């Protein structure tokens, strides 16, 4: 029931049969095992080792794809060298021309292509691979297409974002993770397959002690993977869908994406910050690049690494990082049910001397009750816990800087971070009845 509701909400046709796994990594491994089953004769019985009738094989994904694809080809015996990382374009999406060229080269070299894994919402930037074009290639080349929509797939619930899963109806398999951006407690992954018979051919095995009289009349989940016993994961998804309903979930997802666009606009407007990727969903990739400091690429990376440590050390906000085209990028992901909007304006950076930079965040007015998960990023990223109508003014001057020679990092803003943190803790204690 839960999988059927989710399938219809994201727009997949009823020809897709669903099964629940723990994580997208396991779902992808099973998808590629099915692709191997479909492409290589008698692979279940004979395997791959020392078979003169089986050439080398290849699986294709973009250079932005999650590392679970790497682990999957290793785990199912294809070998890491079988994975082809296709270059991405300036929006970090898979280049179709490079995919076609790589497949052609592999076929010319006697390599057997078996699968392509496009991604809807890559891990670093949440970029979207051109799934319809990949589907064209897979149909022409007779390859298994597995769509990794673990993060971005739920956005297709919104009419405005239905396009993100365009072409997925032509896939052989699709994975969506409700525990990523559908508020479902970890772990729960929805795996949909249009050729579940192939997956069952790869894994179905019923020893005598599991034989039952109605074995042929029911679909047994043990036939869809390596697991025999399973936890009742679907109850968690059922409760989320029943409790919130489609309209509420759509409203929350839309607000998360609006907040991300707002944050991206702040970054774009501030001359000391640089956005490093588009914002198709609710993740913003950026870095601190002060206009008044001449710094090398390694120095900029060091500045931003220190900035991550400074912000995360408060315990109020968590920034993650990645590397994009060799540059260290900071990432803010907005995805919690209680994340709310705080009206926040960024003032121009203050006067900076030869050896430091200054940044400020002013005019913060709280429009929601303080919660441990309610925060917004400022010019340096911050969280202000505030009761409704409370006003706080924080100024961060020279949060990270270098000396006049550009050789030494120094911190100059710990005081205001601690002040904001204490403010939030006081409000939590007041509401809980604890003595302040």
Corresponding CATH superfamily of the largest domain:
Type I PLP-dependent aspartate aminotransferase-like (Major domain)
Strand content: 15-25%
Number of helical runs?
11
How many structural domains can be distinguished in the coordinates? 2
Overall pLDDT:
81
Q: Which stretches of 5+ consecutive residues score pLDDT under 50?
A: 343-417, 430-436
Helix percentage range: 25-40%
Structure notes:
This protein is α/β, with parallel strands linked by helices and 436 residues long. The protein contains eleven helices and 16 strands. It has a seven-stranded mixed β-sheet with strand order 1-7-6-5-4-2-3, sandwiched between helices. Helix 1 packs parallel to helix 9 and helix 2 (24-39) crosses helix 4. It is globular and about 70 Å long. The model is unreliable at 343-417 and 430-436 (pLDDT under 50).
Can you give me a brief rundown of this structure?
This protein has 436 residues and is of the alpha/beta class.
Write the layout of secondary structure elements.
Elements: H1 2-10, E1 17-21, H2 24-39, H3 43-46, E2 57-62, H4 68-75, E3 83-86, H5 96-108, E4 112-117, H6 131-141, E5 144-148, E6 173-176, H7 178-181, E7 189-193, H8 196-203, H9 234-269, E8 273-275, E9 283-288, H10 297-312, E10 320-324, E11 327-333, E12 343-345, E13 361-365, E14 391-394, E15 400-402, E16 409-411, H11 414-432
Parallel strand pairs: 2-3, 2-4, 4-5, 5-6
Antiparallel strand pairs: 1-7, 6-7, 8-9, 9-11, 10-11, 12-13, 13-14, 15-16
Helix pairs in contact: 1-9, 2-4, 2-8
